[in-house]
Design a protein that fits this description.
Layout lengths: L6 H4 L1 E3 L6 E13 L4 E12 L82 E2 L7 E7 L3 E9 L21 H12 L6 H12 L3 E4 L1 E4 L3 E5 L12 E8 L6 E5 L5 E5 L19 E11 L3 E4 L8 E4 L2 E13 L5 E4 L2 E3 L12 H4 L24 H4 L6 E5 L4 H23 L7 E5 L8 E4 L2 E4 L8 H13 L7 E3 L6 H18 L4 H24 L24 E3 L12 H17 L1 H15 L2 E3 L1 H10 L3 H4 L4 H9 L6 H9 L4 H18 L10 H6 L1 H10 L6 H10 L1 H13 L3 H14 L5 H11 L1
Parallel strand pairs: 2-13, 4-5, 19-20, 20-22, 23-25
Antiparallel strand pairs: 1-24, 2-3, 3-10, 5-9, 6-7, 6-10, 8-9, 11-12, 12-17, 13-16, 14-17, 15-16, 18-19, 21-22
Helix pairs in contact: 6-7, 6-8, 7-8, 8-9, 8-10, 9-10, 10-11, 18-19, 18-20, 19-20, 19-21, 20-22, 21-22
Length: 780
């Protein structure tokens, strides 16, 4: 589709000033209300100042732009009345289990919102009479900028962490005897830097601090993309409160979560991989460099199950009749964009016979619980790492659970449940240690716009993967499992380098799936070559039908990974609704890795890949980190003309089909399996040309196995008797159905266009915003 790109719409701003101050930990305390479709509560952020405190000659031009020379209207705090803290505020039973306490703080029920003006700016905030700024500029106040969108912020306050009983052991300086900002910040500095083997104590004190009273409201305001917070008289990030509490509520139309119904017609809400990530779920630092840990307590009606990115397999705690609380935590620092939540009437799907990988083994095998036995040196920041846990390194199948609506129980038991163990085992055999200690798999509602999505400790799968035989489910499951290593444990430092996640997952899904099926080497090679042929055709179609500027895997070129002095940046094309449906990063990345694996030989390549994973897990990378290490491990005789510069030029920084790939595909002879498929296609073409003496039998079972292709053929040949199959597909398989809308419209057949518009009217309210925008552009 030919689309004129609008940078104000297509580029996603990341405004958080991570160059000045970094969030190290989030504590969320939330209530989910399905009646109002609102999530409400508080989030406590624990900070550590960054290392960029340079003075700048210009005032606040970088992230503070003026609008009509009007002053920025900050909400003024009301007089602060600090409550008296009693020792009984914290249960004596908390101990190291204190972080599971589910008690709520006092809500601000005033309903006021500090967002006085909606300036509709793509970035920045207005200049202020308070001389607010994002850094330290002499007499100007330091300004904290968080990524935030579609939230009603009710109150922002400093947290009096010094009031927490027992916290005094973190006050290292004997001279700080009076409670002060300096004392509170010193306590937080000690808390966020505790060694990894004290992770449980650290989570306990994070929870205790999150429940401490406030000690002064802070000025704040919001614009389209950010929340800005300041404290009068605080001029440097080092002096800014290191623990703040934000009380807020989401909006029903917020773009980070989707309120919908599951396949059984019951209400649910979940994060569906929005282009704006989680900033409409909680105020946060979106740039990937802001790697943090989190813990969350979520309350919902007792009939609901809460699933989340968390190391623990949470169980509900009944608070009172009709209400339950769920608690999850993560000790591995990751970008806030990887946080995921799903709340619904899910049922846990269990196999009919008990498998050996029962969750009872979790306690002895998770990185957080097992004794540390260091088996190597890691390059990441300190956390309880499974790569340093001898038990975890040999664990082929991590504990896992499957959740879905009850109506899909049969499909899950028939297809999904039996596939997870061999796919996990295959992944371990290729890459080694599983980065995460457990896995939940959720079959998400029909409006999910993709076949799958991976987050820490949880995978979302579309119901479309359960259709037919196991191949679609198995390959997609392998793809999402691969993201545990590439995309999560190893992330891209610049989100425009999406190929570092999707290219690797696409390449590895074939390898994992072949091993999961226990194919003989020749059979595995033929299967992979057939899939390469199919992907080659898809890539050719994609290149012909997409804007050239969106075909480039490294669009920022030498500026890749660069941010402003404050840490803010933009993600090129990040808001373009079509980007979510493009596969160029998957396909070109896949063919690059396949090209490199062939050059080295599979044994050498995958041996290197395990070494790369061990070196870079828990870290963010750029393309050159991978390529430089790879070339250092290639023998001189195999390197030939390969260099980082040549790969950038040929594969990553140019649009269209890479020249080395064109030469390779032009010279490649079709494998035996591909030849058999071609022969079968030719046979059926001949059969279809013969005169028919009998009516075709419509076999539902066949349709279920090849429904998408069948619908394409129905549309192409205008087979009106099967239009009902197309309607059903568009409504039940939205993850794949979006492409059919284009087929229905391009033929300019009035009946087909009417069908497309009718289906869109029935489903548009449930679609995610990006999908709805793309389809609407096709139809109207």
């Amino acid at each position: 589709m030919d689309v004129k790109l609008d940078p104000s719409r297509d580029d996603l701003p990341l405004l958080a000033n991570t160059g000045h101050i970094l969030v190290k930990h989030y504590v969320l305390d939330l209530d989910v209300d399905f009646k109002s479709q609102i999530i409400e509560g508080s989030i406590v952020l624990f900070f550590e100042p960054g290392n960029r405190f340079k003075k700048q000659s210009s005032s606040i031009e970088e992230t503070c732009q003026s609008e009509s020379n009007e002053a920025c209207k900050f909400r003024m705090p009301e007089p602060c009345h600090n409550p008296v803290t009693h020792t009984s505020t914290f249960s004596s039973k908390m101990g190291y289990d204190g972080f599971s306490v589910c008690g709520k703080g006092v809500k601000d029920t005033s309903g006021k919102d500090g967002n006085h003006d909606n300036w509709e700016q793509a970035s920045g905030i207005s200049s202020s009479k308070y001389c607010c700024d994002t850094g330290n500029h002499g007499s100007e106040d330091f300004l904290l900028v968080l990524d935030c969108c579609d939230l009603s912020v009710l109150k922002v306050e400093e947290v009096d962490v010094a009031a927490v009983p027992g916290i005094e052991k973190f006050a290292r300086s004997p001279t700080l005897t009076v409670v002060s900002e300096e004392l509170r910040n010193q306590i937080i500095r000690e808390l966020v830097t505790l060694p990894a083997d004290r992770w449980r104590e650290q989570l306990d004190y994070y929870a205790r601090c999150s429940q401490a009273p406030g000690c002064g409201e802070l000025l704040f305001d919001t614009d389209t993309w950010s929340l800005q917070i300041r404290k009068t008289g605080t001029q440097a990030a080092t002096d800014f409160p290191h623990a703040i509490r934000i009380r807020y509520r989401t909006k029903p139309q917020g773009r980070s979560v989707t309120w919908t119904s599951d396949q059984s017609g019951r209400p649910c809400v979940y994060t569906m991989g929005s282009p704006i990530n989680n900033r409409a779920l909680f105020p946060c630092q979106e740039p990937p460099v802001a790697m943090s840990t989190w813990q969350a307590t979520v309350r919902a009606a007792a009939s609901f199950v809460v699933l989340m990115s968390g190391e623990n397999s949470a169980k509900p705690t009944q608070l009172h009749e009709g209400c339950s609380s769920w608690h999850y935590y993560v000790t591995m620092p990751m970008p806030a964009s990887t946080f995921t939540i799903a709340v619904g009437s899910w049922a846990e799907m269990k196999p009919e016979t008990c498998l050996s990988n029962d969750l009872a083994t979790e306690r002895s095998l998770s990185s957080s619980e097992a004794d540390f036995r260091y088996v190597g040196v890691c390059g990441h920041m300190e956390y309880p790492c499974r790569f340093q846990n001898a038990s975890a390194t040999t664990q082929e199948i991590i504990p896992h659970r499957v959740f879905a609506p009850v109506c899909l129980k049969g499909a899950c038991q028939e297809t999904l449940l039996r596939l997870i163990p061999p796919c996990l085992s295959a992944a371990h055999s290729v890459l080694g240690t599983h980065p995460f200690s457990r896995l939940d798999v959720l079959i998400v509602p029909a409006n999910f716009p993709s076949l799958g999505m991976a987050s820490p400790h949880i995978i979302f799968l579309s119901q479309s993967t359960l259709t037919g035989m196991s191949h679609l489910c198995g390959t997609r499951l392998c793809h999402e499992i691969a993201h545990a290593w590439f995309g999560l444990a190893i992330g891209a430092r610049d989100w425009t380098e999406e190929w570092l996640s999707e290219g690797f997952a696409t390449h590895l899904e074939d390898v994992f799936w072949a091993r999961a099926q226990q194919l003989a080497p020749r059979e595995a090679q033929e299967q992979q070559e057939l899939r390469a042929c199919l992907r080659w055709r898809r890539l050719q179609d994609e290149v012909r039908n997409s804007p050239e500027e969106m075909q480039v895997l490294r669009p920022n070129k030498e500026e890749t990974g660069c941010v402003s002095d404050s840490g803010s940046s933009v993600i090129k094309h990040g808001l373009n609704p079509e980007k979510a449906f493009m596969q160029v990063h998957y396909l070109k990345g896949y063919f690059l890795l396949r090209f490199l694996a062939k050059r080295l030989g599979d044994d050498t390549y995958f041996s290197f890949l395990r070494k790369f994973v061990h070196t870079f897990h828990g870290q963010l990378i750029l393309s050159q980190d991978f390529l430089q290490m790879l070339l250092e491990n290639i023998p001189e005789e195999k390197r030939l003309e390969l260099s980082v510069e040549n790969i950038f030029r040929d594969w990553l920084e140019s649009s269209g089909i890479p020249q080395p790939l064109q030469r390779e595909r032009g010279a490649a002879a079709a494998c035996g399996l591909a030849r058999r498929v071609s022969a079968e296609v030719a046979k059926w073409i001949r059969v279809n040309r013969r005169p028919r003496k009998r009516k075709r039998r419509e076999t539902e079972e066949v349709f279920e196995k090849v429904r998408h292709r069948w619908c394409e053929l129905v549309v192409k040949h205008r087979y009106t008797k099967a239009y009902k199959d197309v309607e059903r597909f568009l409504q039940e398989d939205q993850a794949m159905g979006i492409y059919l809308y284009g087929e229905l419209m391009v033929g300019e057949d009035a009946r087909q266009q009417q069908l497309a518009r009718r289906c869109f009217e029935l489903t548009k309210e449930q679609m995610d915003r990006s999908s709805a925008e793309v389809v609407a552009e096709m139809l109207f």
